[in-house]
Amino acid sequence: MLDNLDEEVQVINYLNEPFTYDSLKNVIDMLKIEPIDLVRKNELIWKDHFKGKKMTYKDVIKAMVTHPKLIERPIVVNNGKAVIARPLVNVEKIL
C-alpha cells in the first residue's frame, strides 16, 4: 500500500535493520509520543517479560531495541516527521 503513495517517504524496516537506542529515540522524538505508546502490548514477549513492570523511558526503548517485534509498525518518515502508518491515512499527516 505504501508503494502507491505519490510522494516518496522512508519506510523503516527495523526487523531487517534493527534500531540502535539512539536511532529509536530519534524516531520516537519525531513521532512526538512516549516510548510506551510505540509498544505492541499484545505481543507475547511484552506479556511474558515486561507487562506490569515499572519501566523508565529508557527501559522501554531498550526493550524495543532488544525485541524489535515489540515496535508498532509500519513507521513512515518524511521531512523530519514520522507517523505510525496504521491506519494508512496517518501518512497524509506528514506529506
Summarize the structure.
By secondary structure, the chain is of the alpha+beta class. The chain is 28% helix and 12% strand.
Description:
- This protein has 95 residues and is of the alpha+beta class.
- The protein is built from three helices and three strands; from the N terminus they run E-H-H-H-E-E.
- The chain has a single domain (2-94), classed as 3-Layer(aba) Sandwich (Glutaredoxin), CATH 3.40.30.
- Strands 1-2-3 form a three-stranded antiparallel sheet, with helices on one face.
- The radius of gyration is 13 Å and the shape is globular.
Taken together, the total number of domains comes to 1
The count of strands amounts to 3
The CATH class is identified as: Alpha Beta
| Mean pLDDT metric | 89
Helix content: 25-40%
Q: Which strand-content bin applies to the residues? A: 5-15%
List SSEs in N-to-C order. EHHHEE
**Biggest sheet features:** 3 strands, antiparallel
From the spread of the alpha carbons, the general shape counts as globular
**From the coordinates shown, what is the CATH architecture?**
3-Layer(aba) Sandwich
Helices and strands, with pairings:
Layout: E1 10-12, H1 21-31, H2 44-49, H3 57-66, E2 75-78, E3 81-84
Antiparallel strand pairs: 1-2, 2-3
Features:
single chain, 95 residues, alpha+beta, Glutaredoxin, 3-stranded antiparallel sheet, 3 helices, 12% strand, globular
